[in-house]
Structure formats: structure tokens, C-alpha cells
Specification:
Helix content is 70%, strand content 0%. The protein has 399 residues and is mainly alpha-helical. It has one domain.
């Protein structure tokens, strides 16, 4: 690994890491498996990017303006995606023979929850069709709400030892919260359902709460808020604050030994998934640490050995938010709506080459649909309509 002299080099690697992460997320939604862990680098890198941009500013941070800026980057395109999903479901209900009035009415409750960022409060609305990805937006907004407090605590630490103490306390808060929701709220961490069959009792660890509307904050719902992964976010923040004060430390992060350590930590984190419910308390943080550490070092190697591949994946990273928001709508059409309407079942296809050809066709459809919808979101994101939505909603509330 080359010696790193400037923190700007690490910043240049972030889009590559986001590109790899979004590839993992799209593939897990397409085929299942380990790709759900792609969310973790997004959380760590978000903490890094936000803290770094604040730490290099010479003037005092205006937190009200900061909130408006961050929400402007997230909510307008999110709201548009919610509406796209709603009208998709209207079309689905119409195709099932519902009247126009019923088709407009049936998905309105989920639309209401999504638009108001309330979906994560209920175990039946946090992850629903037609877009499993939307849970992440209320989650990241909840992190934004506590970011100023976290930043003040960490930036005002007068030494690395004190900063480490603050970081460890925040990580401890994550572990305590996860333990409480797993043991007392039947907590099931988001993403773990992709390993159905790998655990003895995957869906709900203890299942001692009745599954009624009265006990709605259980299952995956408690994991849709900042305490569930605040340690991952704070980890990125701490690294950014340390690098601003001493950029030379970066050479320890970008090295062969750091890369190997990342792999070891990531494997250890995945081992915790299978160690029982106590392991679930620590697994996500350990996976986030190992995977992110490995990805930034992989980015250095790819940038040096395969610059064209580095540029292509970094380009995906620039588009990652738009891809994240829209890709599952097309997966829904192929893997949920199509079988429901036609009885088509991939499991009934016994010819390997036919199955591969069909999957390739499906993947091309998802890529093309996601590319088109991502361009639509980008156009909207740069338009005055997006500015208007924030100006007359969030900005008015924060005045």
C-alpha cells in the first residue's frame, strides 16, 4: 500500500466504497444472501463525511442551516419515491380488478406513514412492498437529529484518549439498546431475515409479545432508529475528527495490515451472527468496522491496479442514493407482482441455462429501470420543485 500524505486521498475513496455498497444492496434484494451488509459502510461513511465537513470549517456551525441542508439532500427525492411506489401499487390493485376508488385507497395508509417518516415505528410498516429500502431514510433522519450533540461531545474532546472514551460510551449505548430490544421487544435486526433457516429461530428471538397493534414497536421496528447503529455512525465521526487534527494517522488506516485486520474483523462479526442472540447485540458494529476498513483499502488497490474499474464503481457511488431509493420497485415487479399475476416460478425451471438467461434478462430490466428512475430523481433533485418542497415544509417549521 502506498503511503498516504493527505486526508483528501481518503475522501477520494468514499465514492468507490459507496459504489461497492450499493452493488451489494442491489444484489441482496435481487438474489438474497450477504449483500444486506452493504448498508453498514453507508452508515460509517455518513458519519465520517458529516463530521469531516464540520471539523474543517473555521466558523461556528449553524445547526439550523445544517439541518435544512441535510434534509434538502434527502427528503425531496425520498418523497417522490414514496409517490412513485404509491402509484405503482394503485396500478397493481387496478390490475387485480379493484375499482379506481379502492385502488387509490388501499395503499394510502402506507403512503401516509412513509411521507411522514412514521413507518419505522410499526413492525408491520417498517419494511413493506413495493419498496423495502424506504426504512433507511427515517433511520438516517433520526441520526441527523442527534448529530449536533454527538459532534459537540466528540469535537470538544481535548485528547485522543478522551475522544476514545466518548466513542466507547456511544458504542456501549448501541449495545445496551440492542440487548434491550432483542430480549424485551422480540427484536430482529434488519437484514437478518436474509439468513432464514440459518438460525434456530430467526424471525423473533423470544416471541413473548403478542403480535397486535397494541404491541407494534417490536420485531424490526426498534432497529429503524439511531440507537440501534449509533456506534457505527460515531465510529466514522471519530475517525474524521482524528484525521483533521492529525492527517498522518491515515497511513495506518490505509495499509496491508489494516486490510487484513478488516477481513478478520468482518469474518468475526459474521461468526457472531451464528453465536446466538447475544451475538446479535455486537454483530452489526463488528461487521461495519471490518467491512468498511477492508473497503477503503480495497479502493486504494483498485485505484492503483484497475483505474477504469475504480472510476466506474465510484460513478455508481455518486448515484448510490438514487439507486438505493428506486431499485426495489423494479425487483418488486419481477419477483412479487409477476409471479402473483402469472404463476411464474423460477424454482420450477430445471434447466440451468434457461434459468441463467431469465435471471440475466431480469437483471437487465432492473438495471435499465433503475437507471431511468435515478435520472428522474436527479432531475427532480436539481429542480426548483425540490427546493420548494423544503422551503414550504421543513424550513418553515425550523424558522
Amino acid at each position: 500500500m502506498p503511503e498516504v500524505r493527505s486526508p483528501l486521498i481518503l475522501l477520494q475513496l468514499l465514492d468507490f466504497c459507496k459504489g461497492v455498497a450499493i452493488i451489494l444492496i442491489v444484489f441482496v434484494h435481487f438474489q438474497g444472501g450477504w449483500g444486506w451488509q452493504g448498508v453498514h459502510p453507508f452508515i460509517v461513511l455518513s458519519g465520517f463525511g458529516l463530521a469531516y465537513s464540520c471539523a474543517i470549517r473555521s466558523q461556528k456551525n449553524d445547526w439550523k442551516a445544517w439541518y435544512i441542508k441535510r434534509i434538502r439532500k434527502v427528503l425531496p427525492t425520498y418523497w417522490l419515491t414514496c409517490l412513485l411506489g404509491y402509484f405503482l401499487m394503485v396500478g397493481v390493485y387496478l390490475s387485480h380488478g379493484e375499482t379506481l376508488l379502492n385502488a387509490l385507497s388501499l395503499p394510502k395508509q402506507q403512503l401516509f406513514f412513509d411521507l411522514l417518516l412514521l413507518g419505522n415505528f410499526h413492525n408491520r410498516t417498517i419494511i413493506t412492498l413495493p419498496n423495502f429500502s424506504l426504512w433507511f431514510i427515517p433511520f438516517i433522519i433520526s441520526i441527523y437529529l442527534v448529530f449536533p450533540l454527538l459532534y459537540q461531545l466528540m469535537a470538544h474532546a481535548k485528547s485522543r484518549k478522551k475522544l476514545l472514551t466518548v466513542l466507547l460510551r456511544i458504542i456501549g449505548l448501541e449495545f445496551v439498546y440492542r440487548a434491550v430490544v432483542i430480549w424485551f421487544l422480540d427484536g430482529s435486526p434488519i437484514g437478518y431475515r436474509n439468513f432464514e433457516g440459518a438460525f434456530l429461530d430467526l424471525g423473533v428471538p423470544f416471541n413473548h409479545l403478542p403480535d397486535t397493534t397494541l404491541f407494534f414497536f417490536q420485531g424490526e421496528a426498534p432497529f429503524g432508529f439511531f440507537p440501534a447503529r449509533i456506534g457505527e455512525f460515531a465510529l466514522g465521526m471519530a475517525i474524521a475528527i482524528v484525521l483533521v487534527k492529525n492527517p498522518r494517522i491515515q497511513r495506518h488506516l490505509l495499509s496491508l495490515w489494516a486490510s487484513l485486520a478488516g477481513i478478520f474483523i468482518w469474518v468475526s462479526g459474521n461468526a457472531l451472527l451464528y453465536s446466538g442472540f447475544l451475538g446479535w447485540v455486537f454483530a452489526d458494529f463488528w461487521i461495519a468496522l471490518g467491512l468498511t476498513l477492508y473497503l477503503v483499502n480495497l479502493a486504494v488497490w483498485i485505484q492503483k491496479k484497475l483505474p477504469s474499474l475504480f472510476s466506474w464503481i465510484s460513478y455508481l457511488g455518486v448515484w448510490s442514493y438514487y439507486i438505493f431509493l428506486t431499485h426495489f420497485l423494479f425487483i418488486y415487479l419481477l419477483f412479487y407482482y409477476l409471479p402473483d399475476r402469472t404463476g411464474f416460478d423460477l424454482l420450477q425451471i430445471h434447466s440451468a441455462w434457461k434459468l441463467a438467461l431469465i435471471n440475466l434478462g431480469f437483471f437487465v430490466f432492473i438495471v435499465l429501470g433503475t437507471a431511468a428512475s435515478s435520472h428522474l430523481l436527479k432531475w427532480f433533485d436539481r429542480s426548483k420543485f425540490a427546493d420548494w418542497t423544503i422551503k414550504y415544509t421543513v424550513a418553515k417549521v425550523l424558522k
